[in-house]
Amino acid sequence: MSPAVEFQGVTKRYGTVTALDEANFEIARGTLVTLLGPSGCGKTTVLRLIAGLERPNAGRIMIAGQDVTLLSAAERNISMVFQSYALFPHMTVLENVCYGLRAAHVKKALAAEMAADKLALVGLAGYERRLPSELSGGQQQRVAVARALVLEPQVLLFDEPLSNLDAKLRRRVREEIRELQQTLSLTALYVTHDQQEALAISDRIMVMNMARIAQDGSPRELYERPATRFVADFIGDANIVPVEIERLDGAEAMVKLGSFRLHLPHHGATVGPAELAIRPQALIPSIGAAGGDSLSGRIAKASYLGSHMEYWIAVDGLSSELLSIWPDVTQPLPVNAKVALGLATSGVAIVAKG
Amino acid sequence: MRMFSRPSLIWLALGWVAVLLLPWYGMDGIPRGVAVLPAFGHAIWGGRPWLGPLLLPMALASWAMIGQPRPRALVAAGFAGIAWTVAQGFAILHHGWAFDWLAGLMGGSGPTQPALGWGALIFVFACLMMVAYGFARLGFCRGDVFVIGAILLVVGLIALFVLYPALCILFSAVRDNDGGFAPHLFLTKLLNRSIWGVDCLFGAQACGTAWNTVAVASVVGLLTTLLGLGFALLALRTRVRLKPLIGLLSVLPIITPPFVIGLALILLFGRSGVVTVWGADLLHLPRSRWIYGMSGIVVAQVLAFTPIAFLVMIGVLQGVSPSLEEAAQTLRASRWRTFLTVTWPLIRPGLANAFLIAFIESMADFANPLMIGGNFSVLSTDIFFAVVGTTHDQGRAAVLAIILLTFTLTAFQAQRAWVGQRSYATMGGKGSAGQPAQLPVGLRLLCYGAIVPYLLLTVAVYGTILIGGFVDSVGRDNTPTLRHFLTAFSIDHGVGGWFLSGSAWNSLLTTFEIALISMPFTAVIGIVIAWLLDRQHFFGRRTFEFLAMMSFAIPGTVIGVSYILAFNVPPVALTGTGVIIAIAFAFRNMPVGIRAGLANLSQIDRSLDEASLTLGASSLRTLVLVILPMLRPAVTTALVYSFVRAVTAVSAVIFLVTGEYQLATVYIIGRADVGDYGVAIVYSAALIVFMLLVLLVIQLGIGIRRPGARAVPHTEAAPPLTMV
Does B25 or A27 have the greater pLDDT score? Predict the structure, then answer.
């Protein structure tokens, strides 16, 4: 079966600015794929290209195997949940949800029935006659989702749908969206700049940077084996440490860091100086002098954050301090204490620059 | 490729009907000596064979639309139809061939061209729509027929009613009165001493009209800007309660017919004016004619345009976040220091803006110089006298119009460039909470010093107008009387029942009728243009925007002259009809609709349109179901203001009125001109009161029927500035 969405060498320029540079990717049916990246990286452009709100300068866009590059938004089988929700303020909730059905010439009574169904699905039965202005932010968001769902589109597009909600609500709603997507086995493309949100709900994440796709993979792959320094830095925190690659061994490289000798996937790096991304959780501090495989250092700063401790550690031979996160808050390490740093088995990766 | 849809074929059929059945010439009845025939009939039996080729594009269009669609051929056919209609219209004038080479080629005195009629109109319209369908099929504008059709139609209308008349001015500037080509006359007229002379600097003679105009406009611009600033500072930076005054001041320039202030000044300060008489009686001041001339024009225009400058300055000052001033004060700046180092630099760009707007208004003002100018001539009145005066020199009128247009367009461009680059006003947009700084005491006194005389004078002016009509003769004999009112507005009972016997009724009813006819058209074209500019991307959008915006800066006098030059003779002969007055109103007031529409659209988030499109609605459906309901404030504004401005307009239509289609304002000016001040004042007062009532009723109406759209914070569309 053809993928739900396929980009073939799609480029989009606004004047001299390139918003998307020869993107090639596929989105499999029934999956939730997240586009993640800082603002201005081109992720919203991808969404708008799929929706038909923008025309590419080059390349082809396929939806369910059909070339839609030249079709208008109204002719494509997609629907979109907007960041602002874009609920029509002069129409009731029911009229909003019926809008797309009525545009497709579905009979009024049938449209109302289908709309009421979807409203019930998002937990808004009984709100049909309200105006959007009479709903809370979270409820408006659900109306927007129901309005998009009712057309049963090939692809459902979400443009930062949670950014206008407060932090507590955001967590709940993102779970609801994920649940809905899985029970109805919808294909969804989800744009966000919040890496936690992306990690929590995605089957697959595409990290974008400077109009290109920097890395494409499952949440676990991205977090544990970031390919580039940018990805390592953008998803979660990472200590970037200069290292030496001593030799290559198939897909792996032998890396020297202090007294450590590590075998890691080399991601295209060559023998010589390279960079290592170390997650704060992968740095294990313990009181005492360095012994065996460890780095020696000194606690420069220590902060208590309730659920865990954050230590900034000055390591001998490194110019910048390293961040370590440690769950033991009962016996915090004192500032200026000499520590030995161990490395966990996961959360360390060689990264390409960029 | 898909076949052409049924609606598109209707246009094809309409095109055939227009060529084969409808009378090609004559709209308001068939012109004398012309047979009632369609284009086809004229070609065969009417001796006008050049209309025959019109069948060719129709045949081509039929081939392109029926069966296999051929969009390129369709576009070509539509354009060919329009091009041939236009070409024959300009190649053959009402008295024969337009060009000597054509006469030489064809021989004889040539055929004649009657005014084009319904057949021609519908034919061109059908051609336009077929072009739209062709372009849509070729993928322009995302294949949206509605958008392309709207663009083509609006561009066609602007070309016919703005661009074509403007070109006519250019042409007639290089012709003599008999229509011959005379470029040397153009230079003589352009460099004429009466326009550019600087004699007043050296001797007692008058300076050229152009310098007069620039001088008046500069002085008026400066004074109104300062007064406007003073008002704005008092309103927003002191605790004086000026709210009601703000409302009144924003309404006055819209409902006041432009000559009213000049008229009132004559009644107050003329040789036998109220103040003059008091001065002579009590203080033995000599009676003088100082009010007639530059001083009078300046006073009248300052009174008229200060509210406009004030509204601009209020907007600017509101954009300066009080938190900035608070920040300055917490950094230990005194009130003066705060004003000089923070407030003043931030509002400086606004001052330039206000100055340029008042400058343009003053240049375009026609009625006050006409009323009170005396021997002091400015461009707008000179244009008028060049056309209607004893000299009757269309070439001179055209040259003057070109100069005036150059001035206003330059100022307009300067204003746009200035506002575009230097507005800091919205920068500190967020967090505008806080108390604005109070004005330093000295500055506050200065503001009062400027404002109080202005207010007193304004009260005197409006008092004179409202009361003056109900006394026997203002200044000389202040006995209350209804004489003038009855002359103007009496209703008598005679043979056959009640009838309107007052002298004002005829012009009043005509004015309302034409204003009402032009009202919906003005609003529709304005809003559609605003929508196209704000929401659609198409080839040539920048040029289109420039043209639409340019019409903001064309003085009414120039429009009037250009319409006379363009529409007096076939192919499009409209002068002498009510239609041309309605059209003049529509294109004169179109900017009001555009501004209201743009202001309103900018508050409607684009994602609403996009949501509608992604839900599968066409752009027409989106416009009607989503955009228009939210544009209601703009639509109402456009409707109301186009009506009110039509009723109070003078400059454009004074050229176009006839005995049959007399307008209120022109009638009043005529009365004042012959010294019949009583009727003029009473009529003016009636107009002002009536306009005020219209605005109040509408305001209340909007207040009640406001749609429940709290999610979109829409403020009232800003009241459009007047243009005289």
Answer: A27
Subunit contact A86:B711, Cβ cutoff 8 A: no
Q: How far apart are CA B92 and CA B105, in angstroms?
A: 13
Q: Is the pLDDT of residue B708 over 70?
A: no
Residue of A85, A99, A118, A163 to mutate for B, most B C-beta atoms under 10 A: A99
Q: Which fold has domain B500-705?
A: MetI-like fold (1.10.3720)
Q: What is the largest CA-CA distance in chain A?
A: 78
| Mean pLDDT across B20-24 | 84
Q: Are A224 and A346 in contact (CB under 8 A)?
A: yes
Does position A165 have pLDDT exceeding 90, yes or no?
no
Give the pTM.
0.81
Q: Do A133 and B709 touch (CB under 8 A)?
A: yes
| A208 has a pLDDT exceeding 90 | yes
Lowest mean pLDDT among A223-227, B47-51, B126-130: B47-51
Please tell me the distance in Å from A339's CA to the nearest CA on chain B. 47
Q: Which of A73, A89, A151 has its CB closest to that of B709?
A: A89
> What's the pLDDT score for residue B179?
64
Chain B residue at shortest CA distance from A133: B711
pLDDT of residue B467: 86
Identify residue A115 by its one-letter amino acid code: A
Residue type, A227: A
What mean pLDDT comes out for the span B395-406?
Answer: 88
* Three-class HEC string of B424-471: CCCCCCCCCCCCCCCCCHHHHHHHHHHHHHHHHHHHHHHHHHHHHCCE
Cβ–Cβ below 8 Å for B611 and A88: yes
Residue B603 identity: Q
The encoded tokens of residue A260 equal 């450590």
- DSSP E strand boundaries for A123-251: 155-159, 188-192, 204-209, 212-217, 239-249
The answer to whether B659 touches B500, Cβ cutoff 8 Å, is no
CA dist B58 and B69 (Å) reads: 15
Asked if B613 and A72 come within 8 Å (Cβ–Cβ), the reply is yes
Which of A67, A90, A152 is the best substitution to test chain B (most B C-beta atoms within 10 A)? A90
pLDDT at B522 over 60: yes
Structure tokens at B76: 């070509």
Q: Is the dihedral of CA A195, A199, A201, A202 positive or negative?
A: positive
CA distances from B415 to A285, A347, B412 (A): 66, 60, 5
Q: Kindly list the structural domains of chain A, giving each domain's residue range(s) and its CATH number in brackets, ordered by start.
A: 5-224 (3.40.50.300), 229-351 (2.40.50.140)
Strand order in the sheet with A66-67: A17-27, A5-14, A58-63, A66-67
Confidence class for position B1, pLDDT limits 50, 70, 90: low
d(CA B369, CA B669): 12
In a 3-state reduction of DSSP, which class is residue B493? Answer: strand
Q: Are A315 and A297 in contact (CB under 8 A)?
A: yes
Q: Across the strands, what pairs with A26?
A: A6
Our CA-based measurement puts residue A168 at a distance from the nearest CA of chain B, in whole angstroms, of 23
Domains B210-427+444-468 and B500-705 share a fold: yes
Contact A99 B144 (CB under 8 A): no
Say yes or no: ipTM exceeds 0.85: no
Torsion of CA B204, B205, B211, B213, to 10 degrees: 100
The top-level CATH class assigned to B210-427+444-468 is: mainly alpha
Q: Is B114 or A121 the better-scoring residue by pLDDT?
A: A121
Question: What pLDDT is attached to residue B705?
Answer: 45
Question: Which two three-digit tokens encode residue B39?
Answer: 């284009």
Name A247's Cβ contacts closer than 8 Å, sequence gap at least 6: A253, A254, A271
Ordered by start, the domain boundaries in chain B are 6-138, 210-427+444-468, 500-705
